[in-house]
Design a protein that fits this description.
Oligomer: single chain
CATH topology of the largest domain: TIM Barrel
Number of strands: 9
Radius of gyration: 21 Å
Helix content: 25-40%
CATH class of the largest domain: Alpha Beta
Largest sheet: 5 strands, mixed
CATH architecture of the largest domain: Alpha-Beta Barrel
Length: 242
């Protein structure tokens, strides 16, 4: 029976993708002989590849091949032994609320309905959480992901209850160095921050926001009430997204 250290497994994934920004400067990195979690497009299921190597060149994962295969490496390629470790190249966590790190361990037995009234943006968070709280919650959430081996994250950023808190979460995402699709959430709030305010802030950030100078953070849009909003408002949001 094959067993793996959880810590070493997570470390391997973290090393794999955290090295990509440095790899973009031109070096190659070979993760040699690990266990790769891949995906089979034919069976639409996870495919486990034992004794497999992953080659990173520049900012791209360029090859996944059996350890036994004889591959010619570029001079200066860094070889990282990965036996006993698990790698999942190209894995993206597609749904996070990174700013909510302060609530970690509090909601394990919470239903979805309870979540909305205890921990979401519709609670006292909109008046209690300062921009600094959002910034540190966001960056801790990202570091938590990195520690778990996840380096590419789609953040459903519903800390957008003011211009300042929205910018704080975006800045934290950029500062982290992780790959983050930071998706500005449009929602119906009760703190006076109207949908018009949100649309104006999003348009400003899309044109002038700090993400434009980032190689790892991308601006996106999150829109939960699309099935509840009147059609003219939905169309407005769709137009902004375009």
């Amino acid at each position: 029976m094959r067993t793996f250290s959880l810590f070493s497994s997570l470390l391997a994934i973290s090393q794999l993708l955290l090295l990509l920004p440095s790899a973009a400067r031109g070096s190659d990195t070979l993760f040699k002989g690990g266990t790769v979690l891949s995906f089979d497009n034919v069976t639409e299921s996870v495919k486990v590849l034992y004794n497999t190597s992953v080659l990173v060149s520049g900012s791209q994962i360029v090859s996944i091949f059996p350890q036994s295969q004889n591959v010619t490496l570029s001079p200066g390629t860094e070889v990282i032994p990965s036996e006993g470790k698990i790698m999942s190249p190209g894995f993206v966590d597609t749904h996070r609320h990174l700013w909510q790190s302060a609530f970690r361990t509090l909601g394990s037995n919470t239903s979805l309905a309870e979540y909305f009234f205890r921990y979401s943006e519709f609670t006292q968070a909109g008046t209690v959480f300062t921009p600094d709280d959002v910034y540190y919650g966001q960056i801790i959430g990202i570091y938590e992901s990195l520690n778990a081996g996840v380096t590419s994250i789609l953040d459903h950023a519903h800390h957008t209850w003011s211009n300042a808190t929205a910018l704080a979460g975006l800045n934290a995402s950029i500062a982290s160095g992780a790959r983050v699709w930071w998706c500005y959430a449009f929602h119906n709030l009760t703190n006076g921050y109207t949908r018009e305010d949100q649309l104006a802030d999003f348009e400003y950030l899309s044109q002038y926001g700090p993400w434009r100078n980032s190689s790892t953070t991308t601006l996106g849009l999150a829109y939960d009430p699309i099935s509840l909003d009147p059609p003219p408002l939905v169309q407005t949001v769709v137009n902004v997204a375009k």
